[in-house]
Design goal:
Elements: E1 9-14, E2 26-30, E3 36-44, E4 49-52, E5 69-78
Antiparallel strand pairs: 1-5, 2-3, 2-5, 3-4
């Protein structure tokens, strides 16, 4: 999640309707391995949203769909390391 979200950062994720998503939003979704992923929306296709992590060289292999969408990143809270 770097460079935007550093270590020890908590994300506040708000539910959002799939039809309300917009290009550039950062969303959280569950990937096919059951892991939660926070990535940025690139563009909408007929099958779902293309997404990519800010530090990734390529977009994700899977799409964000109504079925795997958790929500949109609404806020972040960071703490300093001890």
């Amino acid at each position: 999640m770097k460079p935007v979200y550093g270590d020890n950062t908590m994300l506040v994720v708000a539910p959002i309707a799939f039809v309300d998503l917009q290009e550039g939003m950062t969303v959280v979704y569950t990937n096919r391995h059951g892991r939660r992923v926070a990535h940025q929306l690139l563009s909408l296709t007929r099958r779902g949203w293309r997404v990519q992590g800010l530090n990734n060289q390529a977009e994700d292999a899977e799409l964000v769909t109504p079925e795997n969408l958790i929500g949109v990143v609404y806020a972040s809270l960071a703490t300093e390391e001890p």
